[in-house]
Design brief:
With 189 residues, this protein is of the alpha/beta class. The chain has one domain. The protein has four helices and six strands; from the N terminus they run αββαβαβββα. The protein has a six-stranded mixed beta sheet. A hairpin with a 2-residue loop joins strand 5 (136-140) and strand 6. The chain starts with a helix and ends in a 27-residue tail after the last helix. The relative contact order is 0.21. The model is unreliable at 6-28 (pLDDT under 50).
Length: 189
């Protein structure tokens, strides 16, 4: 019984002291990164674990974090707009979401899909998204970059730096695999 108590104390001490001894990358993006290609990345400071079954109005287009559905969007390549609340939950799991304007050429969509093949653990979602502020937008939890198109060289830099899920609350522990498929309904993107 004493041995069990010692183990419990040691495990608790690890989780309490870990941020002090070996601080990780802060949540809220990485505004201090010094990669010139990523200077235009917008970062946010959303916390995780805010589940709701209600529709959510997000500040960003597409959203980069915030309250979300309890069920996450399954990884994959989609040809229809997805429901924000489910994809945001996938972002919380460390997923990379690349969105493109409807009408993007098939060749450019294929180029985006190929680029996503470089992401660790293939935690990716690719989908069209009406009303984007740029032809392509790449998003992870708390970080987002508007791109000029599928051939924008900054996509590779973003995927290399953010593709490991380090900005997401559950980035190392969770996956988008095993989620469900949710498409946007009229009036609720």
């Amino acid at each position: 019984m004493l041995a069990l108590g010692v183990v419990v104390v040691l495990v608790a001490a690890f989780f309490v002291l870990k941020p002090i001894i070996a601080p990780g990358t802060p949540h809220g993006g990485d505004p201090s990164n010094d990669i010139p290609a990523l200077k235009a990345v917008k970062t946010y400071d959303y916390v995780g674990a805010q589940h709701t079954s209600d529709p959510v109005t997000y500040t960003e287009t597409p959203p980069a974090g915030g309250p979300h559905d309890p069920v996450w969007q399954d990884c994959g390549v989609y040809t229809q707009q997805l429901r924000n609340e489910n994809v945001v939950h996938a972002l919380e799991h460390g997923t990379v979401w690349v969105t493109y304007r409807p009408g993007t050429s098939a060749a450019d969509v294929q180029s985006l899909q190929t680029a996503l093949g470089t992401v660790k653990d293939k935690k990716t979602i690719l989908s069209p998204y009406p009303g984007l502020p740029a032809p392509v937008v790449v998003t992870v939890w708390n970080a987002q970059l508007d791109l000029k198109g599928a051939s924008d060289p900054r996509l590779a830099a973003f995927l290399s730096f953010y593709g490991d899920g380090h900005t997401a609350p559950e980035g190392a522990m969770a996956s988008c695999a095993g989620g469900k498929v949710f498409f946007a309904s009229p009036g609720n993107p």
